[in-house]
């Protein structure tokens, strides 16, 4: 039987992405990134439901396009990518901190684990308001 699952998912999010800059998990209740985490999870959930997406088990690539007013970026590329990737992976491995405050969003995962990432890309585009686009895609196993 042929596998018919989607191999790429792209979606838009208003506002700024979550950033990963400290040892405290961005999933902790009351974390200063909580609103950004929830917004990203809601956008990922909507995109996954719209397309029938299931988490990818193999090698992946993640692309992040940040749209912001020129000269107004709020964090560096590595902390932006780190925050987005942490949020979009399966959160079962961080369950020890308690994730009940996320409700059904705790189950939103576009892939299993960050160790699957083989390619990352980051790009900035000028815009009047902050927003971003995320793309997660399968890559050939040999990459």
UniProtKB/TrEMBL annotation:
This is Uncharacterized protein. It comes from Micromonospora acroterricola. It comes from the Bacteria.
């Amino acid at each position: 039987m042929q596998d018919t699952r989607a191999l790429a998912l792209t979606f838009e999010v208003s506002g700024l992405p979550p950033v990963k800059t400290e040892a405290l998990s961005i999933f902790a209740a009351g974390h200063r990134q909580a609103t950004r985490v929830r917004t990203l999870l809601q956008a990922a959930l909507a995109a996954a439901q719209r397309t029938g997406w299931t988490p990818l088990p193999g090698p992946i690539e993640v692309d992040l396009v940040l749209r912001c007013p020129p000269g107004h970026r709020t964090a560096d590329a590595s902390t932006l990518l780190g925050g987005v990737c942490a949020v979009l992976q399966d959160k079962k491995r961080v369950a020890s901190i308690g994730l009940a405050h996320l409700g059904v969003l705790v189950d939103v995962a576009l892939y299993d684990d960050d160790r699957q990432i083989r390619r990352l890309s980051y790009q900035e585009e000028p815009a009047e308001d902050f927003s971003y686009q995320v793309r997660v895609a399968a890559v050939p196993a040999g990459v």
